[in-house]
Amino acid sequence: MKMGVLQTGEVNPALVAEHGEYPEMFMRLFRQVDPSLEFQVWRSVHGEIPASPEEADLWLVTGSRHGVYDKLPWMEPLKAFLRAAYAAERPILGVCFGHQILAEALGGEVVKSERGWGIGAQDYALTRKPGWLEGARDHLRFNAVHQDQVVKAPAEAEVLAGSDFCPNAILAYGGAESPLAISIQAHPEFDDAYERDLIKMRETLTEEQRARALASLGGSLDALDFAKRALEALTRRRAQAA
After folding, report:
1. For 2-241, which CATH superfamily applies?
2. 195 partner at 20 to 30 Å CA-CA among 16, 102, 121, 201?
3. Catalytic choice (21, 96, 156, 195)
4. Do the Cβ atoms of 44 and 78 come closer than 8 Å?
């Protein structure tokens, strides 16, 4: 099975040597779930958009320092591609910016939240637990870095998890039990080492915010379990559509 990675941002150059680029982080995560997965990367942030949704079995949209409201030249073609992939029933997994641009592409709304930074390890309560999340913890914990949020979910989406700070943290599209797309505001691909380095170099944080974010790290995360469950759910949906 081939996962097409739509890379919508780039890691700070000072951190690449130690942590790799976003696609490499996702490869490390998902190869723990399925070592046989194949990957192909399109650098959408540089205008690379696949010719067809059929070029991969499922699609993953990465995070980015950009906001969907930046209206950069590559964003509208990416949104058009995501709509085409969704219509063709090619499963999609959106993460952070990927979560946001998928929502906007399908009719949702994204803004820079007045609530400020969601950074460090964050907890999200499961408000809906479809079969593919059966047995998961009632509160999921992931590393996160964001100011933007989905404030209005598309009609196609159901909210699975959220928090007071981020109500629309995990969305399932096309039916929660057998989703065609899953998106998450947090970063399952960010390990504590990368998150820690990112927090330390984030100049827009106050010292209080930085200290609180750093103190949140080191606990048990649900990243690998969520990646496994999401991949299994999307793979089942892909088999049904084949």
Report:
1. Class I glutamine amidotransferase (GATase) domain (3.40.50.880)
2. 102
3. 96
4. yes
